[in-house]
Design brief:
The structure is a single chain. By secondary structure, the chain is of the alpha+beta class. The protein has a domain of about 120 residues: P-loop containing nucleotide triphosphate hydrolases (Rossmann fold, 3-Layer(aba) Sandwich). About 55% of the residues lie in helices and about 15% in strands. Strand 1 and strand 2 form a beta hairpin. Helix 4 packs across helix 5 and helix 5 packs parallel to helix 6. It is flat, with a radius of gyration of 64 Å. The N and C termini lie far apart (about 180 Å).
């Protein structure tokens, strides 16, 4: 005897097991189909997983619902706070608008009052112009400017000062009209003189500008000339073992009366440069400096000839020989001016040159002819 067992499947019914009875033993035996058994297990597991998934979904939905409820409560609380704050802000805005309207009204009232005060001020200015002959005391060129500056800034003090002057006027006697007229004439004369002074000052500015223009075109040449003299003078002094310098002196840039040339010399190493002065240097030292300066001048001035008279007087033999050698070197150069060197005496064995001539003039009771003289050519 066979008994078929079935299982319910969501899609169809399949045979799960077979129950068989045995005649010999008189017993029943349940036989499972392995394929059906495996399929049954899979379907059971699938159903359990689906059931678990549904439960998890319900839990998540419940959690989301709780969060939404909490968020709703929070939003309602925030809405309540917002409405409260909005109401307070609306009250503040209304108050501000009311204050603004009140301020506008006050500003309009102040403007009206200012216009009234300005009108009064214009009237007072007209009165002031009449009293001061249209001379505004607030301007620096006004004769009443200092008096205006001395007036107090406080209204009460100013009012008291006005009353004081009014009392003084009441106490004053009648003023002679001729005196007032003379005073006004003097004021007019003063103004005319001030205008003349102003014109002179403006003219001075014109001349000052003209002087500056001339100075800018003239001084560089002067400075260059002095620089040339200084260079040659320094070279001449250095060739003799001394130090010399020529510089321009002046008190001010445009003080031309103070312009001058200063000669500085140094004859000893332990003495600084000193201005050439008869109280400081000896006669021989001054003669050396003057001779060097004279030779330096020939480089800036061109003349047909030069005459030097007794330049060696007061010099010692050493300086005289150096000066004479320097004279010979400079005066015998090509293109140099002719030099006449007049002296009552000369040293022996001086330097000579083929372009230099020596004229000996004899004079005295022993000379028979007044035209007699000796001409000596250098060997």
């Amino acid at each position: 005897m066979h008994l078929n067992l079935f299982r319910f499947d969501p899609y169809h019914v399949k045979l799960a097991a077979v129950i068989t009875s045995s005649k010999k033993s008189g017993s029943w035996r349940l036989t499972f189909d392995p394929i059906l058994e495996s399929d049954l297990k899979r379907n059971i597991a699938k159903c359990l997983n689906e059931l678990i998934r549904c439960q998890v979904g319900r839990v998540q939905a419940l959690s989301s619902l709780q969060k939404a409820a909490a968020s709703k409560a929070c939003s309602q609380a925030r809405l309540h706070v917002f409405n409260t704050e909005n109401e307070a802000l609306a009250n503040q805005i209304n108050t501000i608008f009311e204050n603004r309207k009140s301020a506008k009204d006050r500003v309009a009232a102040i403007k009206t009052k200012c216009e009234t005060i300005k009108g009064k001020l214009r009237k007072k200015e007209d009165e002031m112009a009449t009293l001061t002959n249209k001379s505004d005391p607030r301007k620096k060129n006004s004769v009443n400017y200092q008096f205006y500056c001395d007036l107090p800034d406080n209204y009460e003090e100013l009012k008291g000062l006005i009353n004081d002057y009014a009392a003084r006027l009441d106490c004053m006697e009648d003023v002679n009209s001729e005196i007032l007229s003379e005073h006004e004439n003097k004021l007019l004369e003063m103004k005319a003189i001030e205008r003349q002074i102003q014109g002179v000052l403006e003219g001075n500015e014109h001349y000052v500008e003209k002087i500056r223009t001339i100075y800018d075109s003239w001084f560089p040449t002067v400075d260059q000339v002095i620089g040339t003299i200084n260079k040659h003078f320094s070279d001449f002094m250095q060739s003799m073992g001394y130090v010399g310098e020529v510089r321009l002196t002046r008190k001010d840039t445009y003080d031309f009366d103070s312009f001058g040339i200063e000669i500085l010399v140094q004859y000893r190493q332990n003495v600084p440069l000193q201005a050439l002065n008869r109280h400081v240097q000896s006669g021989g030292e001054r003669a050396v400096a003057i001779a060097a300066f004279t030779l330096s001048m020939q480089h800036i001035s061109h003349v047909p000839f030069r005459c030097v008279d007794e330049i060696n007087q007061g010099m010692d033999a050493r300086n005289e020989r150096k000066i004479f050698d320097m004279l010979v070197d400079e005066t015998t150069k090509t293109g140099c001016s002719q030099y006449f060197f007049v002296t009552p005496k000369l040293l022996r064995n001086l330097k000579s040159h083929k372009r230099a001539s020596v004229h000996l003039v004899f004079n005295g009771r022993m000379i028979e002819s007044k035209d007699a003289f000796m001409f000596v050519m250098p060997s």
